[in-house]
Amino acid sequence: MKSVLVTGASGNLGTSLVEELHNDGYHIIATLGSEKDRDSFSHLPNVASYVVNLLETDSVSDFLSKIDGKSIHAAALLVGGFAAGDIHDTDVALLDKMYRLNFITTFNVLKPLLSIFETQGGGQFILIGARPAIAPEAGKHLFAYALSKSLIFELANLVNAHGKGKQISATVIVPSTIDTPINGKRCLMQTHRNGLNRRISAKRLPLSYRILGKRFMSPF
């Protein structure tokens, strides 16, 4: 049984993705941000849950030591935060907050996992971008958020350059409307890999089918 690491598993996107992957036969290693969410997946036998502070490298290291020896097929790094406001509404504190929530939480997991992927001979990162990071007209009203999310695209490009020939890749998913039980709408996404953007329309969180299905290691 292949294992997938999902951070931010107790969020709307994370919960739906974990359930989809579980239904598809994956073993899921789920990270949660709070003890109150520890039992979120107690009804799913193939989900192992861990409470991890992704802003702290020591917490991430402790978590990874607990799962040492497990082969991780892919990692969906979903943790992030949102803030509105144009450049006049933005100060250094807000920039730092968005940078930490949207980039550091990803980097702190991705960096050590990259070494694990290199050792095991491959793996895939699934990152969450945002349309305002690639559409300035939308981003100008979400200044700090857009800037922080733009780093995710650059991170994916650098990981893909580093992982070339090593069976390691990074894909950025850009949800515009996420189909979760809360909004019940269609899901319209973009994928970004090696500088390529392509629109995908699918019902109910296509992540497990589009990325972690049979074409797992293939680019879109």
Considering the chains and any ligands shown, give keywords for the structure:
24% strand; 8-stranded mixed beta sheet; alpha/beta; Rossmann fold
Could you walk me through the main structural features you see in this protein, from its secondary elements to its overall organization?
The protein is of the alpha/beta class. It has one domain: Rossmann fold (3-Layer(aba) Sandwich), CATH 3.40.50.720. The chain contains six helices and eight strands, in the order βαββαβαβααβββα. Helix 3 (92-120) runs parallel beside helix 5. Residues 178-191 and 193-220 have low confidence and may be disordered.
Rough shape? globular
Look at the structure and give the CATH class.
Alpha Beta
Order of helices and strands: EHEEHEHEHHEEEH
**What is the strand content?**
15-25%
Oligomer state equals single chain
Query: According to CATH, what is the topology?
Result: Rossmann fold
How would you summarize the topology of this molecule?
Blueprint: E1 3-7, H1 12-23, E2 27-32, E3 47-51, H2 57-66, E4 72-77, H3 92-120, E5 123-128, H4 136-139, H5 143-163, E6 168-177, E7 187-193, E8 196-202, H6 207-210
Helix pairs in contact: 3-5
Describe the structure concisely.
With 220 residues, this protein is an alpha/beta fold. It has six helices and eight strands; from the N terminus they run βαββαβαβααβββα. The two termini are 24 Å apart.
